[in-house]
Structures are given as structure tokens and as C-alpha cells.
Amino acid sequence: MSGTRSKESAVSDDDLRNLSSKIAGLWRFLGRELEIPQQTLDRIGSNNTEDVTAKCYQSLLDWRNNSANPSKQVLEDARRKMNSDTEERSDSSSDRQGDHKVHPVTEQQRLASSSEKAGMWRYLGEELHIPKSVLDNIEMKPSREAVNRCHDVLLQWEQTTSEPPRLVLMQAQQKVNEIYTGLEEKLARALKMTYKKQYDAIQPIPYIRDRLYRIDRIFVEGGVKVLVAGSWERLTSYQDILKDKRATLLRVIEGDPGYGKSTLTLEFAYDWGEGVKGSPVENVRILIILRLRQLGGVQSIYQAIKWFLLSEENVKVSDIKAVIESCHSVKIILDGHDEYPDRDSEKQSDIRKIVMREMFQDLNVSLTTRYLPKHYDQSARRYKLTGFDDRARDEYIRKAVVGDAGEQAVRRVEQKLKDNPILSDLCDVPLIFVMFAHMAHEKKDFRKFKSVTEFFRYMISCFHHHLLSKMRDTNVGRMRRFENDHASLDQMAFDGLSKEHQQLSWSEEEVRRQLGDDCCEYYVRLGILIKEEVATGVEIRFYHKLFCEWFAAHHLAKLLAGNWDPSVLRHAHPYDLQYMYRFACGISQDSSKRLINYLRKLPGGDKFTILCLLEQTGDLNKFVNVVSDLCKKTLKISEDDNKLVQRSTLQLLEIASSHGVPTVCLHVDGCLSEAVTAGGNLLLNSGLHVQPSSTLETIEITGKGLDIPEEKMIRLLAYAEKCEKLRKLTFQGKQLLIPVSVQAEKIPPSLKTRTIEVLLLHSLEGLDYNLNLIEGKWVKHGSGAARIGGVYLYSDNQDVHEWRVRELTRASAAGIPISCLHLKGCVSEAVTAGGNILLNSGLHVPPSSTLETIEITGKNLDIPEEKMIRLLTYAEECEKLKKLTLQCLLPLSAVPAEQIPPSLKTRNIEVLLLSLEELVYHLNLIQGKWVKHGTGTAEIGDVTLYNGNPDEHEWMVRELTRASTAGIPIARVDIADCSPVADQSGSSLALPRSQLSLPILSTLQELQIWDSDRRMDNTEVVGILRYMAKCTAVRVLVFHGPMLLPDRVQGAESILSTLGSRNVTVWGFIRTESQDGFARRYLDLRSGVWETDDDGSGSDEGSWIGEDVKDV
Predict the structure, then answer these.
(1) pLDDT of 103 higher than 60
(2) Do 263 and 387 touch, CB atoms closer than 8 A?
(3) Of the candidates 931, 935, 1038, 1032, which has an alpha carbon nearest to the alpha carbon of residue 980?
(4) CA of residue 148 relative to chain centroid, distance
(5) Helices (H), 853-943
(6) Is-cis flag, bond preceding 901, omega within 30?
(7) What does the alpha-carbon distance between residue 168 and residue 151 come to, in Å, rounded to a whole number?
(8) What is the helix, strand, coil percentage profile of the chain, to 5?
(9) Residue 1003 burial (CB < 10 Å; 0-12/13-18/19+)?
């Protein structure tokens, strides 16, 4: 049964997997023995860069699927042959068992062996019986990578062995691979157990310790952005962070406090531990996740892994290092760099080296942090967590809060959020929203809050109430006092946050000393303080930094009430500690004025002043002066502001309006939505509404790419009408699309009677316009003459086409002269449509009454006769046009004079064609013919048609033909790597690679043909000579190659005679059929034989080819 394969001989997937795990490092050697094509091995090597075992398995699968006989016997023979490593193949490999020749290890094999499982170099040394002292010396060498140490081991082994056979090395490597596989599996298994304990015990609310969740039950994706070319772009999923192909090997994931950085790392741990399909860590062999706050004073990352991830496992630090250095599929996540105690230390810890990419350069490393490290590799890809939107909040409520309680329960929680608009922006912060949602669902007395401080105070009181209700009566009285008496905790928190290098955790001994044992235990039981194992013992930290800021704010409020020294805040920047400042203002109304005055003096302090001002829940009249001072400056709402800051600015605007405080200017920068308005208000991208203000004097709208068509412009003007004190509405920004005109009858009547300026600033070349509200037209703003110079539309800047075309139209309507419109490679094949020039982007460029010059460039743009007529008709519509310049595929023949618009013939318009070598033709509009432009003689120098620029061939051929027809001399044409072939009559040279033909050029003086290693037969040579004979001005024909030509040109006596009578020289660097070696040879036109040049035979092409030829 030769057509079937027995079950005993068939190779199963398990067979391939087992073999792959045993000989992974030797997969290329085995692949060659199985006669797998080299290109297949290279492809597998490039496609599976992280896992050598996967490479081996893929190569064996390829062999099994494509081999004529993929049996176990063939596989075993190949493996045995690989192990024996004989130099000669035998037809029957089974007869050669035990017949091992001894071969020394080559440097190539030594390097290959060093790169596979490099971290296992010490195990390899032990298998090769190298003394421990020698291995210790290799390890002590400074700054040696594992690959180098492994290489040193092999060199040492060779020096102590008379003639080291490859088989010994292969056997040692196989043993090391088996050891490695066991270590890797043990390490991965232990890591997954550690992570499982972490992601199986999530506490959404710290004081409810009897209710733990697995991460997948509560994890909800928030927003994620990536920084690309200076702009933040939204990602669709958290998984894209690790899937991002554009990213470098270092990723920095930024996020404000409470935005879910640590939760994200636990989700990655869950994905890996549970083998979640489609996850970027699904096939990762080793995933290391370290909480950097635990690593203070720990220099070695391997030691940190042992202490904090594998403390219960019998795994040596050296084995951890060996596996990580050997495994080709490792990802590392370092969580909380901002909390890393040694983040600003100058000591060279492993963490610092990793962040600087001085260590683990080949591994994928992700770093979470609130702010960028002081020292890090600048090539890192940056990501940013942006918090919860409405979708994420709704999903969390359904998934983790109400469970099976139904839709009504969902609506109750969402309604409580709507009832607390002051918290709606704060609930973008996942940590705050999580606590809010659970408390809103469970607390019947949940109420409305007027400030963030009020909500936090309520939340902390819930913590205390829950704990005290569970204590035995004997403890309640003793512990209740700590609910209100926490001054020592306040000071400890403030002292930690106000240091130059913030302290976010303390030793347990220090906390007990500062707070006392009872207070310490109370707040630990409360869940606000957390005990955590670190390298030096047990430390205590706050559940989250927000809680640390809450207690620090109490101490700050106390300081403000006395004779406080502002210098205590010199290291406490509001950008980092905004909640501490906001809480302090909400805790003590009497102290807040001092703090607000302090913040206003800081650079950029106005925004924090607004946030703190809104924590006031009492009478705001005493702060009217502060509001007035803030509103004397421009209030800016930016796309870079989070929703919280945007809302705070709008609230200040509303306070000013209600108290009659004049507001100088509101600047809306890049955050106006595409809808522009909604319900009579300005609408922001964040969904917030800007209500009309009775005291607002100026509105500035800036941004990029915002389209405000006429109907939206009308609504915007209606909004301006409602702002009673408004004096100016300005628009500014590249690609801000403003209508060219507005229907006057739709402009609100009251605006026409008020002295309001509607300005468009910094249009093309800084030009400003003013909207005439009576006529609805834009007019030049300011005095003095105006002119627009060159305006460029390129094929690669289509993103600005619409803006520039619109501004050209606006300038034309305003009567402003436009010097030149340059259209470079962007005009469509149709050229015109509806009387306009049509661009590739689909946009139309209408005729301009003030445009003076048009330049159209596009060597592939074909403008035949009928399109040329339409283009001239367009030019006629441009009343001030003086010049139309073209560099395109234009008709060789004359343009029918009777079809040229009559008015062009009477106007002094130049229609120019830019040709080869700066040669210019102009169109005689009376006769419709192209003639050489300017006085004096003209000549075309060297023109090259080469295979690398076939897209320009048609234009070059057409312009060569035009020049020849006009009698303009053409000095030389080079045809390079195009394999030209003359037609049977010799009337043209075909260029097969561009599918074009070069016609007879009556003014051509020299032709050079460059074709490497081309073999031409007699017919081809005669054809080219026949073509040359018809080019009556030719004096030189050169063949370059090297090329192989016939010894003699036959059957072309009359052609040779014609060329000879004109003293044409034919030569080349060639080899003929009977002559060895390439040399400079010339064609004897009398005999048709190629003769060696007496002046310069040999192969030194540079000795006889002129510099001009060598440049080509």
C-alpha cells in the first residue's frame, strides 16, 4: 500500500512539539538535514522572532506539509545525521550509526550556540565540565552580556580539549535545553500563581473586605491615547498598547491618580494567567509585573522578582536570571514609577538601567507612571489613560455594581450621578467613580453634593460608619475618637507629599511611632492605610494617593489658619497635588482666600485657582474680587484640558455673568465640536455647553480642520447676539474652514446695529478679514495694500487643499491680488470639471478674478487637445491672468486656433511649456503652434531614460520629439537598463519596460545604450544601426554593459555604408562571441567586425569613459 501512510510512521503534532522543545536551538541545522529550502527557514526565522521553540515547530510543520515522505523514520534519520554532523551524505543514513567523524567547532557555530539560550551559559559550562573557578571568573568580567559569557565558555572549553567534536557540544546543548525547559515552566507556573492571588482579590471599596472580586468581573476599558508626531491619537483598546507595531521596545503609560494604571497591569496579568484568546500576552512565555513602590533599595531586578513574585518558590536568583536572559518571549511591566522610592536616585539600579534602555534592550518593557521619569529613553512610545466616559461608566455599573438587579437599579445609580453634576467630571476618574457607584447603589441616604470636598467627606464618613458598626461595643468608644482626631495622620501625609522627593510609604515602626498603635491599627482596619511587604520589611502606605491628599489637606488648612510660611509648599506643585489644594479650600472657608491668593501667583495658577474657588459651598460674594481679577485675563478652554478643568472654567464664566463681572475674553482652542452649537449654546468636543454670557466681551475660536459652513456660521452669529456685551468674535487657525460669504438676510438684525467685529485672522500670508454684516461679505481688515504671493498645492499636502482653495476664493472675492497658484502633481486626469480646475482630492478650484499666474506641474498628467482647450477657457475666466505655465504631457501638434478663446488672443497672456534642460516653448495663440520661447540658440544636453524612472519616460519621449520637430539639437540620449529594440523598419526604438517607443530624432547627435549582461543577436544590432542611420544628425553610438554582441554585423552593408559616409563612430565596452574578456571595442563600418581599441584595451572602464559618462 504505497499510497497510504501507516499510523506507526505518521508524524503527529505532539511528536513535532516534543522534538521542538528538545532541540529548539538547533532548528536550522535540523531544517537543513530535512532539506527545507533556505528561504523557508529565513522566513520562519523572521516571522517568529520571540520564541525559538515556535521557530522549530513551524519549520517541522512546513516539512511535514510539503515533504513527499514525512515519516518518523525520515525525521529520526535527519536528527541522527544532525547529531553525527558528518561532512558527506550517504544514501542510507541508518547504516552510519556510530560512525561519527570528529570536527572542530567553527566560529559560526560558536556564535550560533552562544545566541541560543545564552542565559544558560553556566549550565552549559558545567555540562562541558569547565571548572567552577573558571566560570566564576567569566561571571566577574564587567559589562558582559550573556551571549558574550556563553561565547567565553565555548572558547575556554576548546582550549582545554584537544579537538572538541561538535557532537559533544550538541549533546551538552540538548541537556541544557532540557534543564531550561524545566526552569522556564516552573518559573511561569509560579508567576501565574502569584498573579492569580492578586487579580482574584480586588477591593473596589477598601473598607468592604468581605467582598472581593476577580479582575475580569470589574475591569472596564477606559480611554487610551497614543502620542504620534506630537498629537494624541485615540486607541480602540487597552490591548493596542502592547500590540502597537509602531512602538519601540519601551512603552510609557501615563495616567493621573486613580485612572487605573495598576488595574490595567492586573488585567494583563489575568490575560496571561488565564490564557485569554487574542490578548497580546496570550503567547508570551514569561510575564514579569513588578510594583515599583516595593523596590526601594533593591538594586537587582532578579532579586526583586525572587522576593516579591517568587518568595514561596524554591527558585534561585541565578535561575531567574538565566531564564530571562535565555527566553525569547519575555514582557516586563513596571508599575508605578512615580511611586518608586529610588526614582530620583543617581544609583545605577537595574530599574534605572531598564528605563534608560541600558538593560533588556531586546525585551518589551512597559512602564506606568503619573508623570514622565526624570531619566528615560526618549525613543519610548508614550500612551495616556484618559479615564471613564459614559459608555465605560454604564458598563461598570452593569458589570460590577448592580449585577442581576436589573435595569431599574442601573437607572437609579445613573440618576444619582446626574443629580450630582459637580461630581460628573470627577467620575471620569475610575477610582472615584467605582467608589461612587458602589456607594450610590448601597446607601439609601446618598445625597446631592455641592463640591468634591463634600463628597469625599461623606465617603470617608461611610468608611468609619461601616467599621464602627462591626466592632464590639467595648472597642467602639476607644476607636471612635480617631474619626475626628487624626492630626498626626494629617501631618504625616502632608510632610510626605511636601518633600522634594515625595514620600508615599513609611515603615510600620515609623507609622506606629507617629500615630500610636491604636490609631495605626484603626486606619489599617478601615482600609485607608495598607500594609505591604517590601525589601526592608513591612511598610505602610495609603490605599491611594487621593486619600493621602485628603488628610494632607487637613494639615494644610490648619497651617493656613495660623502664621503660615508659603515656603512649606515650594515642592508641592498644584499640577501634582491638585486635590490637596482643592480639599484644603473646601475644608476651611476661612483659610481658602489665603490659598487662592497664593495659587494665583504661581505660573499657570489661574486654572487651579478656579478649581479651588469652586470648592466654596457658601457665599461667593467675598470672592468677587478674585473672580474679577481672573476675568481680566483671557479664559482659555483647550483641547488639552480634561473635562474637569473645562467645566471649572465654564462655571467661572457663569459666576462672572451672574455677578455682573466683565469678562475680557473667552478663548476656545481646538475643542469646538463639529456641530458648533446645540440648543443655543456653543458645544465642545467634551459634550459641555458654553451658555451665552451677559458680560463676555470677546470670543476667540482657534483650531485646525474645523469646518463651519454657512448654516453653522449663522447659528454662531445668533449665539454672539445673545452675549449682550460682546464686541468681537474672531476666528484663527490653519485649515479652519470659514464660509466665503454669509447670506446677509440671515445675519441677526441686532448685530448689524451693534459695533461688533467678526474677524478672520491670519489667513493666507497673514491676511486678516472683517465680515461686513450688512452685505455678508468678507473685506480686507486694516489699512494699506494687500497681496498674496505664491500659494502651493502639492500632491502630498491634500489635508490643506480645502483650506487654501477656500482662502484663495475669499481673497479673490475681496479683490486682493494673488501672484501665483502652484499646482504640483495634484491636478486630476480630467483637468477641469464644471469650468473649474479639478484636483485629485476631488476639490474644485474656481476661476479667480485676481489671480495673475498659474503653474501646473505633473509629468504624468496628460492634457490632450480637448482638455487643453478647456484649460484655456478656464484661463479666460481669470480676468487678471497674465501667465499659464505647464510642465505636463501636452499635444505635439498645434492647438486648433479657431477653438482658442478669442479674448485670450487680445489679452497679453503667455502660455508656456517647460521642457527638457530648461527649454521653454510658448503657445502662439493666433496660430495655435508651440514655438521656442525667447531669443538665441537652444540645445538639449544629456537626457537619460533609465529603468528606475519609467513614470517619466512618456514625458521625456514627447519632449525629445517636440525638440526634434522644432529643429533643436539634442546632444545625447542615454538609454539605461531598458533593453531597447528597434522595429523592423528602424523607425523607432521600443522601450519594453515602459511600453513606449522613441521615434526618429532628426537632431540627435549621440546615443548611448546601457544594459548590463545583455546578449544581443545580429538582428537586434542591425535594427539599432538602422534606427541610427535614420537619425540624420547622429555622430556617435555607444554600447555599454558589459554586453555580449555577435563577432560581426551581417546583412547590413548599406546601413554601415550610410553610417560610414557620415563618419559615425560605433563603439562599446563589450565582449563578442569568440573573444574572451570585456574590452573597449569599436565597429569597423567597412567589414562589420568588432575590433579591439588599440589605445585602451582591457577592463578598466574608468580609463577611457569620460567623466560625464561615469556620472550616469
Answers:
(1) no
(2) no
(3) 1038
(4) 34
(5) 865-877, 902-906
(6) no
(7) 16
(8) 45, 20, 35
(9) buried
Q: Closest by alpha carbon to 989, among 1024, 1014, 1021, 958?
A: 1024
Q: What is the DSSP letter of 288?
A: E
Please give the Cα distance from 1097 to 279 (Å, whole number). Answer: 68
Q: Residue 507 belongs to what H/E stretch?
A: strand 505-507
What contacts 902, CB < 8 A, 6 or more positions away? none
Measured distance CA(747)–CA(777) in Å, rounded: 11
Q: Other CB atoms closer than 10 Å to residue 971's CB: what's the count? A: 14
Return the pLDDT at 176.
85
- 858: its cell numbers: 505633473
List the one residue out of 954, 837, 942, 966 whose CA is nearest residue 889: 954
Cβ contacts of 459 within 8 Å, gap of 6 or more: 435, 439
Cα–Cα dist 584/582, whole Å = 5
Cβ contact 33:81 at 8 Å: yes
Phi–psi pair at 155, nearest 5 degrees:
-65, -45
CA atoms within 13 A on the CB side of 739: 18
Estimate to the nearest angstrom the gap between the alpha carbon of 326 and the chain centroid: 30
1007 with 1036: CB under 8 angstroms?
yes
1017: left (phi over 0), alpha (psi -120 to 50) or beta: beta
Question: Once rounded to an integer, what is the mean pLDDT over residues 119-128?
Answer: 84
CA angle at 472 for the pair 470 and 474, rounded to the nearest 5°: 145
Strands 981-982 and 988-991: antiparallel
Q: What is the pLDDT of residues 474-506, one digit of tens each?
A: 566 667 788 888 999 999 999 999 998 889 899
* Residue 25 pLDDT grade (very low, low, confident, very high; cuts 50, 70, 90): low
CA distances from 538 to 292, 303, 307, 513, 1069 (A): 15, 17, 13, 14, 84
- Grid cell, residue 473, equals 461595643
- Return the SS3 of 1082: strand
Q: Report the alpha-carbon distance of residue 387 to residue 393 in Å, rounded.
A: 10
* Nearest partner of 1007 among 1022, 1023, 994, 1024, judged by Cα: 1024
Length of the chain: 1112
Spatial neighbors of 228 by CB under 8 A, at least 6 apart, are 246
Residue 1102: pLDDT band with limits 50, 70, 90? very low
571, 613 in Cβ contact below 8 A?
no
Average pLDDT over residues 210-223: 84
Amino acid at 537: G
Q: How far is CA 317 from CA 183, 349, 571, 792, 969, in A?
A: 12, 16, 39, 64, 81
**Residue pair 213/198 in contact by the 8 Å Cβ criterion:** no
Q: Are 426 and 644 in contact (CB under 8 A)?
A: yes
Residue with cell 478663446: 901
Closest CA to 296 of 592, 505, 492, 486: 505
Please state the pTM of the whole predicted model: 0.59
Q: How many CB atoms lie within 10 A of CB 493?
A: 26
Q: Is 108 exposed, middle or buried (0-12, 13-18, 19+ CB in 10 A)?
A: exposed
Give the mean model confidence (pLDDT) for residues 967-980: 90
What Cα–Cα distance (Å) separates residue 934 from each residue in 16, 921, 931?
79, 8, 9
